[in-house]
Amino acid sequence: MNRSLPLRPLLRQCATEVETGPDRAGRPPCRRMAPRPLDNRELAVDVREFINAPCSGQSPSRGRSVQACRMWRRLAIMRADAASSYLRRSLTLLDKSVANFEGAVADIPDGAVLMIDGFAGPGGTPQNLIRALRDRGARDLTIISNTAGLASVMGFGTIPGSRPTDIGVLVENNQVKKVVASFPVSPSPSNPTAFEKAYQRGEVELEVVPQGTLAERIRAGGAGIAAFYTPTGAGTLIADGKETRVFDGREHIMELGLKADFALLRAHRSDTIGNTVYRGTSRNFNAVMATAAAVTILEV
After folding, report:
1. Is position 107 within any domain?
2. Which of 146, 189, 211, 266 measures 20 to 30 Å from 285, CA to CA?
3. pTM for the complete prediction?
4. Could you give the C-alpha distances from 142 to 114, 131, 216, 221, in angstroms and in order?
5. Are 255 and 244 in contact (CB under 8 A)?
């Protein structure tokens, strides 16, 4: 028996095949079991009925094989019961769901470093978690994100007349100390973001990172890579204060991996232990940010 395969579905397959007798090689039928897809409902198989199912097809002269078949099935069922009981207890202990958004962000302290997903529109942005964080009032936050809040002023991908929630509400509430972003300003000078206004007043700090470099810095942080070299930004203001080296005759600058205390993300679906499905382009920075934070908080 392949121990890496789900046991219960295999047992049910055996219960079906014991009625057909031994195979052509003369092996007891309950030893030739094919894998079947795992379904939680398979765990409800009637164990008593399975135990009492005869190991038919065996001749009287092969009584030992019949007895061995029955003993083997009883042992397999005992193991399956123990495994399924352990699985149920484990899933209960691993349940990571939280009853409300306020409870999800309750542990975020002042001075925390946050990764918050979002590209330009609301897709992939954890709007409810951001609102809960605003209401919690944690301050002196460092936020790593693709933008510093564009959706709230530009309305990308939103219903006309509605205003999505983004990082801008945290800036307006004086909770942000620094932003690390690729596109921190509005494409329209006549319609500046809350971050732009605060930056011009000297209330927040800014670190501009090219978008590809930002994605790679986050990935590096999640992979345990302290730093890497890239030619992007060499010879520009991006390179100021950074170590440089020449590879193959081309100048490169050293970029540090990015890590965070918390990542606030948005998914299409998830189970209670954190296995997640994203929808379309709303995946953007979500998946890579999840690897680079000490704690990932997922809005579903």
Report:
1. yes
2. 189
3. 0.68
4. 6, 17, 19, 16
5. no
